[in-house]
Amino acid sequence: MQKTTRREAEKKREDTETSLKQLGNLIYEQIQNHEFPWVMMQSRSTDNIIYDPELGQYILGSRTIRRHSRNIRHIRPFTQLIWTAWFAKELVNMRKTSTLREVYYSARGQRDIEFTGQQESDNIITDLEVALNKPRENFGIFPEERSAIFGDLTIEYTVPGYEGRRMNLTDHPDGVMIGPALTSSEFVETSADKVIVIEKGAMFTRLVEEKAHEKFNSILVHTAGQSPRSTRSIIRRLNQDHGLPVYIFTDGDPWGIHIAMVIISGSANAAHLRGLATPEAKWIGVWGTDILDYKLPTENLTEKDLKRLNELKTDPRYKGEIWQREIDVFLKIERKAELEAFSRYGLTYIVDEYLPAKLEAL
Amino acid sequence: MIENSLDACEAQKVPPNIYLRLSEVEPSEEGSSIYAMRVEDNGTGLPSEHIPPSFGQVFYGSKYTLKQARGTFGLGGTITILYGQITTHQPVRIASSTGGDIHEYEMMIDIANNRPLILKHTVLKNDKSWRGTAVELQLEGDYSRIKRRLLDYLKQTAMVNPYADITFVDPSGRLYRYERGTEKMPPLPQAVKPHPHGIDVENFRRLVAVTKSRNMKEFMIEHFQGIGQKTAQRFLKAAEMNSKVKPKTLMPQDIVKLVRTAKDYTDFKRPDPSCLSPIGEDLLETGIRKELGLTKDDFLKVVTRKPSTYLGYPFIVEVAVATGKSISKQFKGGITIIRFANRIPLLFDESSGVIWKVINRAINWTTYKVFSDTPVVVAVHVCSTKIPYKTVGKEYMADQPEVEREIANAIRSAARSLRVYISRNIRVAREKRRLDIFEKFLPKIAEFSTKLSEQEITPDITPLLKVVSASMPEVEKKIKEVPQIAENDA
Question: pTM here?
Answer without folding.
Answer: 0.62
